[in-house]
């Protein structure tokens, strides 16, 4: 058994790309399929709220001690492929870093993920948030997902039986308990055969676009508000005077107003106050209520 339980758990500032967050109660590190057999007992006895954690790229956590038990998915199963119906099926572990998967697909000449170049985090996190960029979302390429639930253990679930939305993924209503705790463990994607040079060129183009308009090297959680049907959140914030707006060491980026960045010593309270300032400014100017894309953990 490779399962490990650490008490107390780590500080979320060390586990999130925004570098914010207080300490947690415990962390359960899961690396192998067999580790999942021990989860039901932990869920029943550990106390605190369980949180499935990938690479922490879309989280804004309170600076206080958090009543959380982290379930960290360390399943970094290497990608493998096989022929599918009018596609190539690619399977990979949820704990694998998403940029690693993209590098593998480019070397193997597999197309479908190019527009997602530059998205940080893990493969499982990309599934759980239905990550998207430049008109492509994970839902467009997922064939099935291998998930663990307390009720049914570890099983493959077809994409048709999953629920996808804007930056949202969940299981069908009959597949897990109302509290909905589950872990993404593996994913199978439907990609198209291409040639490595063409895939690499498309990825370079996407990355160049992002570098020109987004603070890709900053401490951030990516876009913090969801786009509205009327206008992108970045444009709404920009036209409401939020670009570069700063409070302490937290700031809306000068490059892209929908990116909240930590300039070094930012705090969660500063971040939350800035989010509310931005939401209020957009509401007052446009009458539009912005919805957070980043997951806020009080």
CATH domain topology of the largest domain:
Uridine Diphospho-n-acetylenolpyruvylglucosamine Reductase, domain 3
What amount of the residues lies in strands?
25-35%
- What does the radius of gyration come to? 19 Å
Low confidence ranges:
none
Query: What about the largest sheet?
Result: 6 strands, antiparallel
Average pLDDT, rounded to a whole number, is: 93
Tell me, what's the shape? globular
Return the domain count: 3
CATH class of the largest domain: Alpha Beta
Helix coverage percent of residues?
Answer: 10-25%
User: How many angstroms does the end-to-end distance come to?
Assistant: 33 Å
- List the secondary-structure elements in sequence, H or E: EEHEEEEEHEHEEEEEEEHEHEEEHE
Spell out the key features of this protein.
single chain, alpha+beta, Uridine Diphospho-n-acetylenolpyruvylglucosamine Reductase, domain 1, 6-stranded antiparallel β-sheet, 4-stranded mixed β-sheet, 6 helices
Task: Describe what you observe in this structure.
- The protein is 22% helix and 32% strand.
- The chain is of the alpha+beta class and 298 residues long.
- The protein folds into 3 domains: 4-73, Uridine Diphospho-n-acetylenolpyruvylglucosamine Reductase, domain 2 (2-Layer Sandwich); 80-212, Uridine Diphospho-n-acetylenolpyruvylglucosamine Reductase, domain 3 (2-Layer Sandwich), CATH 3.30.465; 216-297, Uridine Diphospho-n-acetylenolpyruvylglucosamine Reductase, domain 1.
- The strands form 6 sheets. Strands 6, 7, 8, 11, 12 and 15 form a 6-stranded antiparallel beta sheet that branches. Strands 1-2-5-3 form a 4-stranded mixed beta sheet, with no helix packed on it. It has a 4-stranded antiparallel beta sheet with strand order 16-19-18-17.
- It is globular and about 50 Å long.
- The mean pLDDT is 93.
